[in-house]
Amino acid sequence: MNHPFITFRGVNAHLDVQFTFAHGVAASQCQVRVPPTPGIEEGGTLIFIFGGTRIEFPQCKVDRIDVARNPDGLMVWTLTILDRRWKWKECGTISGYYNVRESENANADAGIPKQIKKGTEKNVRALMKLCLEAMGEKGYSIAKVPDDIFPEVEWDYELPAQALAKLADTIKFRVVLNWRRNRVELWPDGEGQKLTTQNSMEYQITVDPPERPDQLIFAGHRMLWEQDLELEAVCRSQSDEYLPINHPAIQFKPDTQPIDGNFWWYFDPEFGNAIFDKPVTTIHGIKTLRDLAKADVYRKYRIKVPFFVQGGVKGGHKMEDLDRILPLLSSRLTTQTPIVAAKKPPKVKPPIVWGLFTRDTPSPEYWKELNDTRSKLDKDGNPPKEMSIEDGFQVDEKTGIVAFDKPRYQFGKKPGGIEVDGKTVDWPYTKPAKLFLRIGFGVRDKDTRGWIHEEIVRRSRDKKFGTQPRYVTAADAIFRTIATKSGAGTNRREYEKMAKHYLDVEERRYETRDPCAATYPGLLPIVPDGAIQQITWSIAEQGATTRVSRNREEPVLGLTYEEQRLYQQLREKLATDPKTSREADDKRVRRPA
User: Fold this and answer.
1) What backbone torsions phi and psi does residue 184 show, to the nearest 5 degrees?
2) What is the C-alpha to C-alpha distance for residues 168 and 175, in angstroms, rounded to an integer?
3) Which long-range contacts (CB under 8 A, 24 or more apart) does 38-44 make?
4) Is the CB of residue 106 less than 8 Å from the CB of residue 336?
5) What residues does 79 pair with on adjacent strands?
């Protein structure tokens, strides 16, 4: 009659055996009770044999020997033997910095995912390959690992097994040691063979319906826009409040008859004529009203409200409150054309001001431009050079005020002339320039003042229970809208692709996997995969059994995979937070809102 038994160097007889083989990078433990047996070797191949079944585990190691006296008064040794993953625990090293994101502030401000530096690109599959090779593994299988995910990692003499486990966690995969082929395999969590009730001694199924919400909602980074925002000339009142230059509260306007509502048509911004030198004590750095007028009039412009935001805006397109888009970004969203020879990623463009403003001598064409400024834009929406101001101004992102280094105004002509000192003359007069600020910005909700995000909804196909939605957020997914001459273009396809990835990962948490376990007589050569998470082979006086757990783990010996990873992650977080040196540097730099 065949009896189940094990072989290991130096073990001549045993009382009972139990080996729970599980997922992960930590070695599984086999406990063997033997009579006192001097001469047991520290390492070797552990083999389970029963009839024609042979299950081998090479390169095992005795972890410890516990000596105890049983109730009969006999001495019993308990061997704890580790599978070959014991070599991963403290051996090997891996260093490297991959998928390094560019850290230019302008790109970060614009909410554009940071470009990966040339020469550092490696997808998660390639990174896992580096880890496995650093672990000394050969013949491994990583074919199921996706090749379109590029996580930023920085390893500095890190244990390669822990680096591998961390990568697996990132994409919801399991590290599996296939004992039959003696190779490491990466499996999607939950994917694998099913259990059968045939010939089972015991079959347990756990009905564990997940606490699934009625719908999942993905929300990326706040939505961002780039478009032209019309400006209006402003100056400070004596109470230090910025107001349109012809506002009634600006009580130091020139004492002249206004032209088209503008009192400043005869104002010389260089000398401040027609403004009394009345002292001002309420504004720092300003001594007189004339100083105030010279500092602000035609030099300070602010985004004019109301205005309309192009593209989809939750709650309406019309912005009647400037605070709804403040603070602005410090850049646009459009990127510059990269210089191929430099091999550097494109940077976002800086803000630009364009429109109608003073020229030395207004030409006949100038007066035509007054009627339709947008007609001057080219097919890509770019203004001509003579209508553009690319420097000589500063944008205050917190207030939406643009300060110019010199006065910016335009000429006007009044039919029939204007009256100056009792005479009618056909002179051009000055009035605020017609300017537009092209810049990036987000939009706040009208009621809550929270930033607006583009939401992607995925409704559950299962029974609904009236739950609130579960929100899935990701800061690296940004929905962008860039206004063009013919409309507004978005990156919706790219955004929805990222949303699908995050929602798919989240949805796996709520899959009904029907976790189950079965116990079979004898020693069955079952191989783990993404679903078969634990196999326990037991040999006792009554015979041998094989217990298999699918999509569940039983803490028979040691910690479960999830507990192992929890403790490992906590330990690593304490030791390695932040994850990369660049992140540490970034945290020390205050980012604009």
Assistant:
1) -90, 135
2) 7
3) 39/10, 40/8, 40/9, 40/10, 40/11, 40/65, 40/79, 41/8, 41/9, 41/10, 43/9, 44/8, 44/9, 44/10
4) no
5) 32, 65
CA 431-381-395 angle, to 5 degrees, is 55
CA quadruple 482, 400, 297, 271: dihedral sign: negative
Neighbour-count burial of 592, counting CB atoms closer than 10 A to its CB (0-12 exposed, 13-18 middle, 19+ buried): middle
Check: CB of residue 529 under 8 Å from CB of residue 557: no
For 80, the enclosing helix (H) or strand (E) is strand 75-82
Judge whether residue 581 has pLDDT over 70.
no
Task: Reduce the secondary structure of 296-356 to three states and give it as a string.
Answer: HCCCEEEECCCEECCCCCCCCCEECCHHHHCCCCCCCCCECCCCHHHCCCCCECCCEEEEE
| pLDDT over threshold 60, residue 539 | yes
Q: What DSSP letter does each residue of 24-73 carry, written as one string?
A: SSSPPEEEEEES--TT--SEEEEEEEETTEEEEEEEEEEEEEEEEE-TTS
CA distance 190 to 187: 8
- In this prediction, residue 454 carries a pLDDT of 94
Mean pLDDT, residues 151-171 taken together: 94
* Average pLDDT for 516-538: 95
| DSSP H or E segment with residue 471 | strand 470-483
**132: enclosing H helix or E strand:** helix 124-134
